[in-house]
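Supplementary Methods S3. Complex input for the protoporphyrin IX containing FE-bound model.
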Amino acid sequence: MLSFASLFETTAVSIMLWFKAFHVISVICWFAAIFYLPRLFVYHAMSEDTATRERFKIMERKLYRGIMTPSAVLTIIFGAIVYSYNPQYYMASAWMNVKLFCVALLLVYHFLCWQHLKLFRDDLNVRSHTYFRIFNEIPVFLLIFIVILVVVKPF
Ligand code: HEM
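Predicted complex, serialized as structure tokens:
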């Protein structure tokens, strides 16, 4: 028969797994937007007529405000909740500290996207489509690295 303490622990762990699931769902939504927004920048930088440019501005703004930023916030909130279940363990884990450093880099990238979006919005962008194609590759490396860190926990 389960004691009260072990029943409490089993329930706490299963609630934590729900938070972890929503953490991963938010990560997927964040990355869908983080991959798509710079792709829009590529086509926006190539576009030559005003009507097309105005359409890109709306798409970029809605993607950034409606999906990318809310998903980033939810990723951090759910990640912090999961972290709070065992802070001593995570604080002592090198893989988690490196992961959090990569998340900080990802937030810098997120902020840079916002800067580019504002330049496009004000018709001040001077970067070429080639620049945005290269810029678009940066989060791919961060994603691969972070997922390996949390799943393999190599150190
Ligand atoms: C401040 C932001 C974040 C915090 C505090 C955080 C925290 C956590 C914690 C504590 C876990 C449980 C790890 C374990 O015990 O196995 C976890 C799991 C995970 N995190 Fe994050 N995370 C954050 C951002 C991210 C980002 C940006 C990504 C993706 C690029 C990510 C991807 C994952 C994945 C895939 C798992 C599931 C690992 C597994 O259980 O197999 N996290 N996160």
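Residues 6 and 12 are 10 Å apart (CA to CA). Residues 4-152 form one domain.
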